Amino acid sequence: MRTVLAGLAGSLVPGTGHLIVGYRRVGLAFLVPTIALAALVAAWAASVGSFGVLAAVVAPGALAVLAVANFGVALWRAAAGLDPVRRARPGTWVVVASCLIMGLTVGIPHVIAARSIAAADELLGSLFAPAATDPASTPVQAAVPPVSAGAPPPAPGASAPTTSFDGAALEPSLAPSLAPPPTPSPTPPTTPDAVTSARVDDLGAGTLPPVGAAVPWVPPGAAPWGDDGRFDLLLLGSDAGRDRSSRRTDVMLLVEVDVASGRVAMVGLPRNLTNAPYPPGPARDAVACACQPGLLNEMYVEASVRHPALWPGATPEIKGIGAVRAVVSEITGRPIDAVLVADLVGVIRVVDAMGGIDITVPAPVEDAMYPDPIRGDVHLRIAAGRQHMDGRTALAYARSRHQDSDYGRMDRQQTLLLAIRDAIGPGAILAAPALLAAARGMAWTDLPREALPGLIELFGRASHAPVAQLRIVPPTWSSALTRAEVDRIRAAIAALIPGGPAPAPATAPFPVPTPVPRPTTVPTPSVAPSPSGPPSPVPGGVAVGDYRCRALGPAKRAVAADGFDLRWIAPDPADGAFDDAWVVVRQDPPAGSVVLPGSDLELVVAPPGSVCP
């Protein structure tokens, strides 16, 4: 037993096992370096703090060094445990018992550590871009010179001379055109039964760009903030999966951190803002109001599907993200330093890997038609009070809006983000392989990996700092933007963290009394109804059904069953949402049009009992 105890003690504190069996010199040879190294590491950790330790660990190349060090420490501990057993010349059962002890005290912890290091390295490699390129050689979106004053916008279908984002002439094939781009391949509709049978892991990350994709703006560097002393991160949460042909940025949150103090400001932008100003460039010049006539959350589809020739970027995904980035910068007056796009399905995986999350729900949440990504439409009920939520419940809490409005959903989204911030400690990234695996592949950012140490230290200062929140919601704010309203938004954002630069006035020439919409990219020719029944679809098209005079709930299900995406429902009142009994009185495209499956439809509803056309 004395020999077994020596092996156990030596594996825990190298050198103590030798002292137990009487080999003092060898014991000191193991013990003194161990104590010295532990003291140095402890002193360094105390001086830099937990976030400083984490920043050093995630620095480029540090995880490889840590993996080697983990292996070396494991060998050192194994030798310190087995050597005193060998020197004591024990019997067979003592050797077997000592080996079992080594497996428990040395093998298992170091295997877990090795898995955590490998998972962390894989996650960081799959999320963060390679080292940033020279900013001087990278085009900047804001550098687009506007078209000369008085110059007419390019005619539909024409290729007008234009300028690229670095001042060089664009290839003719990339010149802006208002002609409809090719319609994307139709996406087969996903039935509720198919969604119900899907696993969360199978939903995927949708249409995220590849890691390190070239971007048409200056990518962040090792210090990803500018000279204004603020780090502005745009968080985009979106749905993209088998039941959607593209990505919708329903969560748009600007997080600003003061580099010196760590103070945080969170600005929530609702998806249903209209007249969002375009940045200088072909897209602004092509529309009379120089703005987005539709909803703000349509910007990704606008740039990636509807009019990709008007927006820069090598891929549709980059065009969409870049367009949202540029328009949010125009609204807020803040230079966007970095973008983080997260697939909302990833919330389920991450929160589940954390073992759930605690959120204080101020009022009950009930949604009779919540679109669960696994089970389809379900009846959601979340009671008021302190709730421990799993991943699907947390996502439902942040996504549901039918019981109130988009603005209530924005409040819940920020609550969820703050709850996750409080729940994840500085050591969680390296201590939980499951958490790292859950997050892999569910997000994209233009931040380089070399920026991570500085960001860790910055968010360490911000981890317990006060958070000023601003939500652009009625009645304080209008959902229809004007130049005066944008100036007011910019001033309110600048006041969230005092001491920053004064906001610049808005420059876009919007809005006109009635914004002039650009031609739709989805062909909707009217088809004369046949005497015997509904209109006959043209080759490659699908006749839109007539959803008028249906209650909202059945109409939504019919739209999905017919293979279309429901873009928005109007009105969207700020004082409380309509219920599923409201009646559809108008639809766009109208009944009898021919569009492709997966296209967007809009429904206009009225209170129950309304007269339908």
Q: What order do the helices and strands come in, and which of them pair?
A:
Blueprint: H1 2-12, H2 16-20, H3 24-57, H4 62-87, H5 92-127, H6 192-197, E1 230-239, E2 248-258, E3 264-269, E4 274-277, H7 282-285, E5 291-295, H8 299-306, H9 316-332, E6 338-343, H10 345-353, E7 357-361, E8 365-372, E9 376-382, E10 385-389, H11 391-399, H12 406-423, H13 428-431, H14 433-439, E11 443-445, H15 452-462, E12 467-471, H16 483-494, E13 542-543, H17 552-561, E14 565-570, E15 583-588, E16 594-595, E17 600-606
Parallel strand pairs: 1-6, 3-12, 14-17
Antiparallel strand pairs: 1-2, 2-3, 4-5, 6-11, 7-10, 8-9, 13-16, 15-17
Produce a short descriptive summary:
It contains 17 helices and 17 strands. By secondary structure, it is α+β, with helices and mostly antiparallel strands.
Structural class: alpha+beta
Low-confidence stretches: 132-205, 241-245, 511-535
Radius of gyration: 29 Å
- What percentage of amino acids are in beta strands? 15-25%
Number of helices: 17
Strand tally: 17
Mean pLDDT: 75
**Which geometry do the CA atoms define?**
elongated
**Strand line-up in the sheet with most strands:** 11-6-1-2-3-12
Q: Main β-sheet: number of strands, strand sense, barrel status? A: 6 strands, mixed
For the record, give the distance between the C-alpha atoms at the N and C termini, rounded to a whole number. 91 Å
Helix content: 25-40%
